[in-house]
């Protein structure tokens, strides 16, 4: 019997290629996969079809002859014969051909044949028919057919089987064996079919050679199905070498490098994994009437009145005993021993009656014992011993309701470590052999007690218990003590594979289901839909010896009874779907999006579902061919006009996912014109009908968004973001944007639409989150989740003990809304980067969004505000001591006059030195604390420390106070001491202003002051230039005369005079002393100076300050959040590694609880006139929306009434139709319905309702026009303010 099982043919020529692939696997790309899934990239490689060498494998085949020029005509690969046949000629002589037979493994020459007198355009043809190799070759006008063995065994050419004679020597183009009686030959561009009369091809030999003349002539035909498949790779058909149907490979010669042989596998991963092959005996397909039975992995069938035993594992067959008694005895041997089948004396050994091994009964199990097997009563140990379980389990303290509910249980390393027993319906008890103790798993819910468990596995690392029963498989969670999944089927229809972090269950009913575990819970479920069902075939038998071992399945046809054909399938772990040699690794797209909980793989697509959702979230189109891969490569090389024309004709095929390209957006990720054209085409398509458009081109590759961000292509970034927001607006796809949020902010991309979408935020509407509560406080809490939708079960964990519960039922309640911020990479992975880019951003719009505000609030409340408050309180100690010191020193040094005997005497009062020293010590200790902090900042930030202006004030303050302390005790010059005091006072209050930013009430004032000085910098420079101008004019006019009022600063007197003019303080005493001409000029210049400096410039300053104030007030909340972001950045820079890894400080997800429609929340973004406009727009919109909803509800109610009346009329007419005859019924019925409907519409207010709806449409249009006008006005106002 012949079976198509895995080929044993070795291919050493490909070893180098495989090694190079394994080396490339060592270079790991940055991927989003968590550590639980890293084994996928460690053990498997995703093919990059954008590289031709990824699909095409090659090896160098050097063919040369010593000192002669050789031209190769063709190479024929005879894989099943382990041969390579090379046809060639010497020195340009095409009519004389040489044929070399070369060993495929060793490349040694086995035989050379010379052929003369053939057309130079002809070639030899090799065909296989009924497992016999045939060769067609030409000599003159004759074509001969002979067996390959005859050629190799050096028989004469006259020993051919068939001779075909043609009229003239023309090119021999093609030959094909149709069946045992018909042969097709293409000769001189004509196709001939020769029919063998009487004798089949198998029966022809040298003794009964056949000679043929032309019988029939058909049209020219040179295209065959396999060649079409070959043309998907290359257009050079003449380079085809061999189609290996066993290994599903096509071999061909490289068109450019003739010495290189290429091959590719034309089978897909799914078809290869679920490869079903016919069972054969004597070269004919085996039928159900020949089937006898199946025992374990042994398939037994009848052949020529004999029993044939086939080992499905190895494909080895043996004849069974002729005597039925002996045959049955041999089956008993096979049931109890596998080694006996490979015994050379199998039939002799199995004639003897099987003698079971005697086991000694023992009472205990030690930690060194090994469990061999179990039956209904006993546990069998090594050393031919056994333990009766019912007696042994009495040693435990647990209660057992029934017997025979035990089996062997494996550990995570597939070792027999435990004995499993389902003691009660809610308790599982197991005995740990290594630790010599009983333990239990108490289930939350009671499960039906199944009597006969077969085997079990306890994986404490992944957190599950798997139990295989005779009629089902159950998986329990060790973490929450609940049943995860129950899969029905008999034991013969299930198989289990347990590796890494997954459980794979193959079931006739459920197909192939793979459960992936992460943090001891099910993280992902992949289902290969109806994988084990085939059209017109039924699963007949199935066998898996143990977990993780091959599963053998036997199928039979459904259309016939005893004549139904039988087929077999060998099934292994789903990891075979990662095989890179086959086309289309559909398993990789299942891991592209981490938050996909359920994945369904079909032959044409991969569907993604979120946890707890029945509606599909998105899907990949994965039905690809080599022709499509070829077109993906070629289309990117075309001009834009040709590309757009091609996409308009057939864009659907470019929406399919091809690894290395992605889809059409991946192909043209650098072509804005084509992307815009694609966007227009997709805009008219339904969103639900489109596959996933934006994704990574490979699991470790980049998406079009990644590419455009890395290349700073802002227009393409905006376009791709709009595609994601329109077609992939779901939290599942946020990982595409999440990892790039910081880069998008850095490039100043407008993210308002993104932050308002469903991608970065999830509104929690689960029933466990109450929508109304007595406590209206706003809470922002961090939480660690594996998947965002797990938040639905975490209410108590998050808010337990943090909300005030009302005792009185009459207390008012408020509506509460909950949100989950879905930015795990931005918050958790890029811990410090988000605040850095926000603090550096000039776009205040980022700080107006709920998401950014919530993140800043969380960071502020968690670790920033308390940090700065503590430092502020410490600084207040310095301020109190310093202020006391200043006042005490000032009043202590004050000069006093005492009267003695009527005379006044001058007395200097010296301050108390102890008080002065004490205040200095207190202040110095505080400043030393801040000095350490500043030094830590310098060590961490290095040169970045000097980029912040506040740091200069901080360090200068410390240095200035140190100088003040030294000078006060060492220098007698009071003037220098006064100057240093003034400097310290200024710097002390500057630091006080810094700390005041902690409080929202002061924050915007400090920010406004800083903004005012920033806005006035150019104006002040120009103002000083004007002061300098008028000061020099006055200096010349008054001839630098000294003014007593400016004694001490006489050099600057006239510049101060000009400044006093600008402030409205006029000095006019010296004007009257001028000459007649100069006095006129002086007054004219004075008037000009007053107009310029006092009226114009002072009003300019007021205007600039007012504008700065308005701008700060308009974005009051945004500015306060920006200030907080600066302080958060400074705080985070001092974090060590443990702080950065802390889940308390940097949780992957943030939950926001806030009262619905809070005025404080809604009203904080805009202030002043803009706030009033915004409020009016919002109010008008709400009123209009309410009115529209009410009117539409009236329309719907009226339509519902009309529909009910119509249903009543139909029922009445149906009842009348049973009484009246059918004659003329249709006409009467139509007339009656029309009358009733007219009456119903006349009785209703339909016409008025229609008028009302039309009026409503007009109102809506007017409202839209008003809103557009207000929007444009606001835009103009904001643009003017920004200018």
Automatic annotation (TrEMBL):
It is found in: Membrane. GO terms for molecular function: monoatomic ion channel activity. The keyword Transferase does not apply. One of its GO terms (biological process) is calcium ion import across plasma membrane. Keywords: Membrane, Repeat, Transmembrane, Transmembrane helix. It is a multi-pass membrane protein. One of its GO terms (cellular component) is plasma membrane. Residues 872-1114 form the Ion transport domain. The keyword Transmembrane helix applies. The chain crosses the membrane at residues 872-893, 913-932, 952-971, 978-999, 1019-1040, 1052-1068, 1080-1105. It holds the Pfam family Ion_trans. This is Wd-40 repeat protein.
